[in-house]
Amino acid sequence: MSPPAATFPNEAAPLNGAYLKKGLPVKSGTPADQAKTLEAMAKNWETNFSFAPIRESQVSRAMTRRYFADLDTYAESDIVIVGAGSCGLSTAYMLGKQRPDLKVAIIEASVSPGGGAWLGGQLFSAMVMRKPAEAFLRDVGVPFEDEGDFVVVKHAALFTSTLLSRVLSFPNIKLFNATTVEDLITRPSPTPTHPHRIRIAGVVTNWTLVSLHHDDQSCMDPNTINAPLVISTTGHDGPFGAFCVKRLVSMGQIEKLEGMRGLDMNTAEDAIVKGTREVVEGLIVGGMELSEVDGANRMGPTFGAMVLSGVKAAEEALEIFDA
Ligand code: 48N
After folding, report:
1. Tens-place pLDDT, residues 86-108
2. Whether the complex's predicted ipTM surpasses the cut of 0.95
3. Positive or negative CA dihedral for 323, 105, 302, 300?
4. 221 labeled binding residue
């Protein structure tokens, strides 16, 4: 029998109103009311303002109820995207826009999603995208300056924060950040020529801070998310990068990684977009992770291929889904 829900003073009062000292909650009401409220506060903080009352457990329950409900909902997802960099977020945006019926879970190892897209290159803030990638910027609503064959977003953070806010506004998409994919769920899918062939059927996850300490703590077992389709966009090789394709090699599903080649913008970007595909059954790879599989060149500080690889990854995913 669960304990009776605690009640506290003012619990019935609207939580979205600011409190004037007079004790009467100011209804959130129209923007004019809110403006009045802000003005009233700005003029008289000492005499005319206090927050609505709260009990700490209300905050805890507001967070944990939602998080664990999400874990329950997305334990069976339709699509899992691994990595919330520019490619993963672009993929999520296209899926969110086109298929509100699909449950999409994004697993991002870092606390802060966005990957390498918070800066344009060598800590410079402006972000370059070669045409025709500006079509994606227009669709998302990111302003840019037109420089002929390419466009410039004045700050990479403007691109990433705008895209992130669009993705997070889709009700069917859930971002689990500070969470690492530590392994892949597999199912046998043998063929006469490949008796050990598998298909991907979801991901194995853990808190990133746990993943980083498996070497100095005894077994801290993971969690799982089942999904018929995983889209991996974990970036090129590095401390976290290229995770899923490296796991495919260690499982004997692909022979070896060709490894990312030297920088050649013109070659790299077309290859990454055109090469975005299902690498093994149930696993699509996009963005710079793909360069490790195919031995594609790197493109350096230009991001058009990332967003259009995301567009293609979403297209490939829907073709598989609707097949
Ligand atoms: O930004 P990245 O690294 O990857 P992409 O492919 O979205 O964008 C790549 C782009 O930023 C470039 O590298 C540019 C174009 N430069 C190219 C060049 O030539 O130098 O995002 C990958 C995300 C990151 O946020 C990681 O934290 C995350 O994936 N991640 C993971 N998340 C969960 N589980 C994992 N195992 C994992 N590994 C990486």
Report:
1. 999 999 999 999 999 999 999 99
2. yes
3. negative
4. yes
